[in-house]
Specification:
By secondary structure, the chain is mainly alpha-helical. The chain has four helices and no strands. The chain has one domain: Up-down Bundle (Substrate Binding Domain Of Dnak, Chain:A, Domain 2), CATH 1.20.1270.
Length: about 80
């Protein structure tokens, strides 16, 4: 898998976990976490469009980690 494919995969992964976060209603309890994650998703997309796949990957994974931590702490994962 090359850098572009990896970045695309991680963008989809982040979009999925943000959807899960919302479906579980955690966006209501942790609105700032959702805002951070969505901002990092926006950044990841921006860097992807600029062909900076490494930075896109990093931004997506950082946001994924924030949400994943909440899911774990809430016993949802």
């Amino acid at each position: 898998m090359d850098e572009k494919e990896r970045a695309e995969k991680d963008l989809r992964k982040l979009e999925g976990i943000i959807s899960e976060f919302k479906e579980l209603g955690l966006d209501k309890r942790f609105p700032s976490v959702l805002e951070w994650a969505e901002n990092y998703l926006s950044d990841a997309r921006h860097f992807f469009e600029k062909n900076d796949y490494f930075t896109s990957f990093g931004a997506a994974n950082y946001a994924y980690g924030i949400i994943d931590g909440i899911l774990i702490a809430e016993g949802r994962k």
